[in-house]
Amino acid sequence: MEGVKMELSPATRIFHSQKYNSYIIAIIGFKTKVDPIIMKAGLTQTLIKHPRFSSKLVKDEGWIPCSVNLEEHVIVPNIDDPTMDDPDKFMEDYISHMTTTPLDSCRPLWELHILNLKTSQSEASVVFRIHHSVGDGVSLMSLLLACTRQTSDPEKLPTLPGQNINSSKRKSSSSPWSWIWGLLLGVWLAVLLVWNTFVDFVMYVATILFLKDTNTPIKGQKGSEFAVTRFAHRTLSLDDIKLIKDAMNATVNDVLVGVTQAGFSRYLNRRYGIRLRARIAVNLRPVKGIQDLADLMSKGTKSKWGNLYGFILLPFKIALRDDPLDYVRVAKSTVDKKKNSGGIFCTYLLNKIILKTFGIKAAAKVSHRAAFNITTGFSNMIGPLEEISFYGHPLSYIAVAALSIQFQSYVNKMTMALGVDPNVIPDPHQLLDDMEESLKLIKEALLNQGLLPPLQHP
């Protein structure tokens, strides 16, 4: 394959440093067995037409277009006993073993594993392993969805939830008091933006220099970033999450943060005073629509790609609360402050300045130190509203594990996935149990307090 080489972005160079050799794992469950021949044919027509999936990375030269041998990238293991006692554990062990071997840098940095093994959630599974330098989680998920079609209409791309944007213009008031109050409100919001940005930036710098989370049983120790990673996931009801969201005038993300805090609190069973934070990577590049990415693969159109993001340090309040709804209330209050802040852009600019001034080793060390001084990562990505098929194979769920805690929606399901060091969290399923139980308790609290409309009661 011939083409023009692409230079390495700063984030790509950091992801290939000694301290950051990370991968994104995407697990797709299917309602039917997967045909490897059909899967390879679909990949030929879509994914490998994307420049990053048909290029190898050369450290001092950039992304170099190359030929793709699908037999090297699509792995179909021979599963001797398809009727084994615990297929779910087999799949977890298989995925965990994948993290022990690096991808071959002499070819494009991705691979796809087809596991025709019936588990508790699917008839078969496909596991993508993609080096993080290829793209961030949001970009890669959008690209994978661009390879799918609606099950009810094979010609249509999936539909993602849109933002509720009220395009109607508000009527202007001629009252001078309305104008004055509007001006005062604008000034106050600007003051809050500057203050929140200052606080977030100072906290990020302090985290790099000295501010560490409390050492708890779930905080990794030195060297844990090189340990074998174990992945576990659980599917929740997205309808229940939306029910709580509407009843509490919150967002889906607020509810998920609240559920996560409640789950950690149950898991730790500790008293107040623990400092525990989650680092949230926020995409700073406008996300290309699925149609744009589909056109990129089918028509060869140009599109910016890669890793471009800043960070939010989100405090997790670890406490056993009498009212489960307080977890969501605290989450909403905290997240609202983060939304009214420019701290995300400051973290991006700081890392960029360090890279240009002191070089890649210093930038990688600073980024690694910021990550090491906090407890976990957190991410939430939206998925299709309707059922979809991947090269003709209908999906049952999607789970993505790039950070410690990852939420991914699909139709009326929300899958939470954990990527953990088993030496730090030896029982990830217990943590999933606690998070699932926390969601139930929050919903029950809404019912008991009469905060749900009668028609929405179970």
Automatic annotation (TrEMBL):
Protein name as it appears in the record: Diacylglycerol O-acyltransferase
Organism: Cannabis sativa (Hemp)
Pathway the protein takes part in: Glycerolipid metabolism; triacylglycerol biosynthesis; Lipid metabolism
PANTHER family: O-ACYLTRANSFERASE (WSD1-LIKE) FAMILY PROTEIN, WAX ESTER SYNTHASE_DIACYLGLYCEROL ACYLTRANSFERASE 4-RELATED
Database matches in InterPro entries: CAT-like_dom_sf, O-acyltransferase_WSD1-like, O-acyltransferase_WSD1_C, O-acyltransferase_WSD1_N
UniProt keyword annotations, A-Z: Acyltransferase, Endoplasmic reticulum, Membrane, Transferase, Transmembrane, Transmembrane helix
GO molecular function: diacylglycerol O-acyltransferase activity; long-chain-alcohol O-fatty-acyltransferase activity
Domain O-acyltransferase WSD1 C-terminal: 305-443
Annotated spans, Disordered: 154-175
Catalytic reactions of this protein: an acyl-CoA + a 1,2-diacyl-sn-glycerol = a triacyl-sn-glycerol + CoA; a long chain fatty alcohol + a fatty acyl-CoA = a long-chain alcohol wax ester + CoA
Subcellular location: Cell membrane; Endoplasmic reticulum membrane
GO CC terms of this entry: endoplasmic reticulum membrane; plasma membrane
Gene3D superfamilies found in the cross-reference section: Chloramphenicol acetyltransferase-like domain (3.30.559.10)
Pfam families: WS_DGAT_C (PF06974), WS_DGAT_cat (PF03007)
Transmembrane segments annotated in the record for this chain: 179-211
Matching SUPFAM superfamilies: CoA-dependent acyltransferases
Residue ranges of every copy of the O-acyltransferase WSD1-like N-terminal domain listed in the record: 91-255
Topology in membrane: Single-pass membrane protein
Family classification: In the N-terminal section; belongs to the long-chain O-acyltransferase family.
GO biological process, one term: triglyceride biosynthetic process
